[in-house]
């Protein structure tokens, strides 16, 4: 079995230089890195990461816990995390909680046993138990996408309330007064914030929010489908729908199509988060776009800073990215022009 000394001999450098390249620490030229990496491949050398982690008390692994890895928003966010982690020499472990606090807690326990160096966490239903467990072990954690009121923890999220406020304002400017909000479960901060932004925009326009137009369900395509069906059965059918995420938008669109309701001719439909080009023939939905990739990168940078400074309990950061409103066909023209 080849050793680090064999790699050093093949690359024409000292063993300490090979160690620096493997650990991505200290100074070495790009040419030296290339020679060492080539020697590692040619010899089939596998670094003893277990022994190294026992010495350094670091495993050079980070954990990313998401609530729905099938959602393109979280897939893009995960890519931002992975790129930043990889550039810093860290390996990333992905886990998916399916919005289950029990599943999330199980994953956190396992990952702590594996001694990951830090966590990036989208908390299931915005609960704090997993965060408390992680911090009880003095392991740094950065919360992604969701707010955690009353807890001192680093957070990177988007302005969900502001985005919903802008989308609702757009619909009001087009003449809509009966607007339905299809959102996620109560207690999920992004869902709550988007309802709050919707309500605030109505109140700013002198429109009294109708509780019957605020529908809650799962943040899934089936959730959007079911909520849209409910909206269509309301005594006063809404002329527009604000969907809290892209999956709800897709599910709502399916329900409207099945009911023979044309978008935007019969009903406007707007929502959060774009869809990848591979999933749509052409961009159609008016959306509040969140910079998912940038959010992932920023959260990872904050976590790496915590690891570098070895500080966990001092002042914490909350980074809030703005949303970008992209107007497309699904919001339609002014009602007066129809």
Summarize the structure.
With 338 residues, the chain is of the alpha/beta class. Helix content is 44%, strand content 16%. A six-stranded parallel beta sheet has the order 2-1-3-4-5-11, sandwiched between helices.
Structure description:
- The protein is an alpha/beta fold and 338 residues long.
- The protein has three domains: 4-47, Orthogonal Bundle (434 Repressor (Amino-terminal Domain)); 56-158 and 294-323, Rossmann fold, CATH 3.40.50; 160-290 and 325-337, Response regulator (Rossmann fold, 3-Layer(aba) Sandwich), CATH 3.40.50.2300.
- Helices cover 44% and strands 16% of the residues.
- It has helices at residues 4-11, 15-23, 30-43, 49-56, 72-87, 101-113, 129-136, 160-173, 189-204, 221-232, 246-258, 292-309; strands at residues 61-66, 91-96, 118-121, 141-144, 154-158, 179-183, 214-216, 240-243, 268-272, 286-289, 318-321, 324-326.
- The strands form two sheets. A six-stranded parallel beta sheet has the order 2-1-3-4-5-11, sandwiched between helices. It has a six-stranded mixed beta sheet with strand order 7-6-8-9-10-12, sandwiched between helices.
- Helix 11 links the parallel strand 8 (240-243) and strand 9 (268-272).
- Helix 1 (4-11) crosses helix 3.
- It is elongated, with a radius of gyration of 24 Å.
- The mean pLDDT is 90.
Classify the helix fraction into a percent range: 40-55%
Structural class: alpha/beta
Q: Looking at CATH, which topology of the largest domain would you report?
A: Rossmann fold
User: What is the CATH superfamily of the largest domain?
Assistant: Response regulator
The overall strand count is: 12
């Amino acid at each position: 079995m080849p050793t680090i000394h064999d790699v050093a001999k093949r690359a024409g450098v000292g063993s300490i230089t090979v160690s620096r390249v493997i650990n991505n620490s200290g100074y070495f030229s790009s040419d030296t890195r290339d020679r060492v990496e080539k020697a590692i491949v040619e010899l089939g050398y596998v670094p003893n990461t277990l022994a190294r982690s026992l010495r350094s008390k670091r495993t050079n692994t980070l954990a990313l816990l998401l609530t729905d890895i099938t959602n393109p928003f979280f897939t893009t966010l995960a890519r931002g995390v992975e790129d930043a982690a990889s550039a810093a020499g860290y390996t990333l472990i992905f886990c998916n909680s399916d919005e289950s606090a029990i599943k999330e807690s199980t994953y956190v326990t396992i990952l702590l046993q594996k001694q990951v160096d830090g966590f990036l966490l989208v908390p299931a239903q915005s609960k704090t138990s997993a965060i408390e467990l992680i911090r009880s072990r003095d392991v740094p954690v950065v919360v992604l996408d969701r707010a955690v009121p009353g807890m001192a923890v680093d957070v990177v999220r988007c302005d969900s309330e502001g985005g919903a406020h802008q989308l609702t304002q757009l619909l009001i400017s087009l003449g809509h007064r009966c607007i339905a909000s299809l959102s996620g479960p109560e207690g999920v901060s992004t869902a709550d914030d988007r309802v709050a932004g919707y309500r605030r925009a109505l109140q700013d326009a002198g429109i009294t929010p109708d509780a019957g137009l605020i529908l809650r369900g799962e943040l899934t395509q089936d959730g959007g489908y079911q909520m849209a069906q409910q909206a269509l059965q309301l005594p006063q059918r809404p002329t527009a729908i604000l969907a809290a995420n892209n999956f709800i938008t897709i599910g709502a669109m399916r329900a409207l199509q099945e009911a023979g309701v044309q978008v935007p001719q019969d009903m406007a439909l707007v929502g959060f988060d774009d869809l990848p080009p591979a999933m749509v023939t052409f961009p159609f939905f008016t959306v509040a776009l969140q910079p998912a990739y940038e959010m992932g990168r920023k959260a990872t940078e904050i976590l790496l800073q915590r690891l570098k400074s070895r500080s966990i309990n001092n002042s914490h950061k909350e980074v809030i990215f703005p949303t970008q409103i992209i107007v497309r066909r699904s919001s339609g023209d002014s009602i007066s022009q129809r």
